[in-house]
Amino acid sequence: LLNCYAMYNASTTKNSADVLMVFPSHMSLEVWVQAHNLLGTVESEHLKVDDANYFVKTNPPLNVQLIREEIFPTSLLVNWSHPIAPQYLHLKYQIRFCPRGSHNWSYVPLSDTDQHTRSFRLQSLQPYTDYFIQVSCKHTKKDYGYWSDWSANATMRTPEDLPERPSLWKTTADGVNGQEVLIICKDPILANGRITSFEMRIQHSHNGSWENERIPVNRSISAPRPEVTLLKRISLADKQLVKVCLAASNSVGMSPERCLFISAKPLGNGPVEDLSVSPHQGQLFVKWKPISDRSLTEYVIEWVSGEQINWQMVKKSTNLTAIKGPLEPFVCYRVSVYPIYATRIGKPASTEAFLEQGAPLEGPSINKSYTGYDHAELVWDAIPLHQRRGFITNYTIFYKSGKNTHAITLPPNSTSYTLKPLLGDTKYDVWIKASTIRGSKNSSSHSFTTLKYAPGRVEGIVVGVSLGFLFLVLMAILLCIYKKDVIEQNLWPQVPNPGKSTIGNWSPDNPLRAETPSEDCLSGMTVHVEGVRDIKQGLEEDKTSLSLKKDKYLSEEHSSGIGGSSCMSSPRQSVSSSDEDPEMPDNTANTVQYSVVVGPSDYKGQTPVFSRSESTQPLLDSEENPDMLGSGGSRHFQRFPRQSSLSETNQETHFKQLELEQQDFCSIKEDTEWTLASETQLADAEPGSASSYMPQGGGYRPQ
Predict the structure, then answer these.
(1) I want to staple 629 with a disulfide (CB 3.0 to 4.6 A). Which of 41, 188, 267, 636 is the partner?
(2) pTM
(3) Exposure pattern of 130-142 as b/e (b: 16+ CB <10 Å)?
(4) Is 35 helix (H, G, I), strand (E, B) or coil?
(5) What CATH number belongs to 365-449?
(6) Regarding the domain with residue range 62-157, which homologous superfamily does it belong to in the CATH classification?
(7) Where is the composition biased (Polar residues) (predicted)?
(8) What is the residue extent of each domain of the chain?
(9) How far is residue 523's CA from residue 502's CA, in Å, rounded to a whole number?
């Protein structure tokens, strides 16, 4: 600095410098700056001023003090001292203030403090609020000097005042006797003091009576105020509508009342339309379409996170507002807008929103899996809200068996899905990925094994086989019924009915008659009548010998087997022999089923011998016990003495009848032919000859 008397200099590497000297007040100055280095020196332009006070920057005001007055709860008086004597400089001042906890300063207009003064009254402050106040000063001449630094903070709390109306609201809860309502409130935004109690009045619609209640509260100055205060729980089981009025009290007095009608169901018109919530610069902005209703008084904006509830009230002309409350990122809030119609709550409109989204903290939990043969149903739990950290955009199911991995994308509201088609009796590993707009998270792996057989498959096979077997059995039974004759013919022998046997008619005492054989019976016996003449000639000579052997043949009567042979037994040739001539030729028939009598041509008075049949057919009672037939009323044939003077004609007739009687044996339908004695053979027989064999009614008897 150079003046007419002296020159001062100061060296620095900065772009500013302090010159320590006696300030040349009211003197002219010329100022310039020189820059030096090894290559030389450069000098700036010279600045000339007529008054050195043009460059003055004073110290901040001194002794800043705040004074509050109880009668002015919204103002504070600020006092300070000049940093320099008025003989040297006339100063103007600037004042700024802010509530405690805020970083936004409010400035007093310069037009109010441009005079050389030492006090100022701050107005329009909030009652019962701590303020920080600072003061700065500068030369009063325009464009002269620099503002001084701000003074130290001066702190003071404004006096208390009457509180504003409290914020009254309700929330619902399930009670024992029905729906219950919780009446809640918040301290007034402008409490203007320390709230000591709430005065509540409740009017019931069924009788119109008022119920007064005082709820004391303890609000410490140092402790933070609670967001929500629970006032009372009301049951709406027998009340359709209640009116609640609430007022807040502090040391100064009681606030105006706020009333609200509470009902089990919302009242008024429909909800607001086009509700949307979007984050912007760390805040949630709520927008809706306004309702044109004259009875509308205000809106209530409610946001809920878990069990935490908060709300704010806005004017009826508002359709866009920011939520004024503490919000946290990655937390889901359910935001609702309630229209209020003359203290009556209307129907709300609700939506969900996040202040900030992120990837989920964990994936969905697979809690159940129902496996089948070719499919498996997965059931998982939704991610809890506090771990979701954003809106789920989709779920992706991954499942693999071996080296092949498959993926399926599902909508965000899915909680179950059926995987198909799968392989039977195969192990699968499955996991689910949940995604948001900021990331995704996989769940833990879950394993399951499909069934080896489909449910009901084994039962179906068993039922089918059983039905098939039953069908075959029924068909076999029906076949047996319709083909009974064929089966009986092939499986069982056709045994003749002994009851139809005519062997009992073989008696000389009965008249010989020819009976026509039945269709079911065929004769399996052929009787060859040979040597009839010889038998006739020796008949008289053998009478004596026959009587001698009578007892012998009577003893063999029941053991001869006559009549006990089965028609199905193998045909055998019966041989008749005599004691006197063992070399007698065999003249029996080819097929004889019982016993036949053969008379040789050279018969010499010999007694005929019976050959026993090998049949196992039991004898008829009439054949085994001939004596019982007479007592039982059955047919009984007696033996009468034979007359020796039988004519030849009678003998021929006797042999004809014998041939017809032999046809009554039941046949087994073999290819056998009836062989009857010819008329010529009977005519050639001697008239005096008698038959050596006669059919007996009670078995065979000796002739």
Answers:
(1) 636
(2) 0.56
(3) ebbbbbbbbbeee
(4) strand
(5) 2.60.40.10
(6) Immunoglobulins (2.60.40.10)
(7) 499-508, 608-619, 641-650
(8) 62-157, 167-263, 273-354, 365-449, 497-703
(9) 12
